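Data card: per-record layout.
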Amino acid sequence: MPPAKKRTRRYDPAKTRAAVLAQFAHVRDAVRSLTPEQLARPTRLGDWTVRELAVHHTMALGALERGLAGPAPLKQELALLDWPSATRGAAAQVADGTRELTASVADLDALFEERAVRAAELFASTEDGRLVPTRFGAMSFGDALVTRAVELVVHTDDLNDALPQLGVPYDRQALAACTRLLADALAVKAPGGSVEVRIPPYAVVQCVAGPKHTRGTPPNVVETDPLTWVRLATGRIGWAEALDAAKVAASGERADLTAVLPVMG
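The structure for this 265-residue chain is written out next.
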């Protein structure tokens, strides 16, 4: 019998809207304090500078604005659980768009202000079920909001890595949504019930084909914190590196996720 299809987790639309705006505000507050020297510093994203990374944060909301500017698509083409894997292979296109926008921006704070104001307007006036075109296919506005939370959390972590002294905070609801979607995407990529992945306090999923655990302590358990999970799921850190740094606890002969990571490109 084939494994049961993973049921999509429900996200509270009002909380997701507030989380996306809050995380964007955290980044904006940090970016407006940066010096030209800090903006020119490198990041772990290839040849991107901090300035390009900052501009890319605004694109997370700009994509929604562009999508809502035209008519709604006739049908949904992309499910939320399929979005993380759909992003694989788009890095070059995303990088080109980021560089193009960065070259055209004279006032970084004005760009953040424009995006924040416009996003607040759109979030207040757009129904959750409205279909929105995206780079990877049409999806509901509610689902697209969850992907924006993921993008902002992932790139906030990139910004904190480039400039640790910033300490940009993570909105709790945004971090929760990011953690949960990437955990559920792992269960889709590696369906099964032989390994339990725990990411307290936000998510627990079972994955990887093999004997299914039904009661008691699972024989194969992986446990880590939300930010380490985000880094593993997006390829910012490797499985062996996380184990060596004691960022992941893994027990059981099947508790090795090397073959199924990352889940998002």
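Known properties of this structure: The chain has a mean pLDDT of 94. The longest strand covers residues 195-199.

See the next section for split statistics.
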